[in-house]
Inverse folding.
């Protein structure tokens, strides 16, 4: 493919065949016959709640008023997006449990910077490769010193620093895009920090403890990775580096997983 979203790079590293099947063969898993309130839908709804909360914030607001506004938005979104009453009540209870911590942390964040990019698409071209990387960050703030602070909301556990360094490159690549001016509202800007905000659990936040120079290093490795896959000699290996052997890929049936072992050597095959 000549264009990928930044969220697909982790898949390209861990399960290249999923990128081949989904974005070259254009095969998509069928929706379940009986939809359920799964983690993916919960993540989408939580992101929508936070997006509306940030975009409707007044100039001055107490913590109590912010908490009430967050819960009112959560009720409205859940009622509109989730047709399962039990899931509505359960997910609202989880939000209510961490709402005070979320708004208190948000008050501190707003004292340090201003949200400028919220769920806005950015584009970074690699002219030498004829490739385009896109991203839609959850949030980018401009700090009081003029630098950028990149945030990513997670409904589940955020990846560890080690996972970010080797596999989950989303924030590192988004930071590199910010520094290259991929988001017009920001312009080229140095990135001061990268932070995960958890919308579950205890509502905790965690800064990435990764040196800033790794942003440039990750971008260099990314361009080499894309160049390698643009070479017709490079095949898209199934389940190349999944986190666990128990992990399930949407394309295990198509790759006929079960007829071969993870220890087997990948054999190139020209399907043309």
């Amino acid at each position: 493919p000549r264009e990928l979203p930044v969220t697909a790079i982790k898949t390209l590293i861990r399960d290249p065949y999923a990128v081949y099947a989904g974005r070259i063969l254009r095969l998509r898993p069928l929706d379940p016959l009986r939809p359920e309130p799964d983690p993916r839908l919960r993540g989408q709804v939580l992101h929508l709640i936070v997006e509306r909360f940030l975009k409707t914030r007044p100039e001055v607001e107490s913590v109590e008023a912010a908490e009430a506004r967050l819960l009112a938005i959560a009720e409205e979104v859940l009622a509109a997006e989730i047709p399962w009453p039990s899931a509505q009540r359960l997910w609202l209870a989880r939000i209510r449990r961490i709402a005070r911590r979320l708004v208190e942390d948000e008050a501190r964040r707003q004292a340090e910077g201003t949200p400028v990019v919220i769920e806005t698409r950015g584009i970074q071209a690699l002219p030498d490769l004829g490739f385009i990387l896109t991203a839609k960050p959850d949030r980018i703030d401009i700090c009081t010193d003029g630098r950028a602070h990149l945030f990513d909301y997670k409904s589940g556990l955020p990846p560890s620093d080690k996972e970010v360094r080797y596999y989950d490159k989303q924030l590192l690549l988004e930071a590199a895009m910010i520094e290259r001016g991929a988001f017009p509202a920001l312009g080229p800007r140095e990135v001061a920090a990268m932070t995960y905000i958890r919308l579950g659990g205890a509502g905790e936040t965690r800064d990435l403890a990764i040196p800033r120079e790794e942003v440039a290093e990750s971008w260099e490795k990314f361009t080499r990775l894309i160049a390698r896959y643009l070479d017709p000699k490079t095949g898209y290996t199934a389940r190349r580096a999944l986190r666990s052997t128990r992990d399930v890929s949407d394309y295990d049936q198509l790759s006929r997983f079960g007829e071969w072992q993870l220890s087997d050597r990948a054999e190139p095959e020209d399907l043309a």
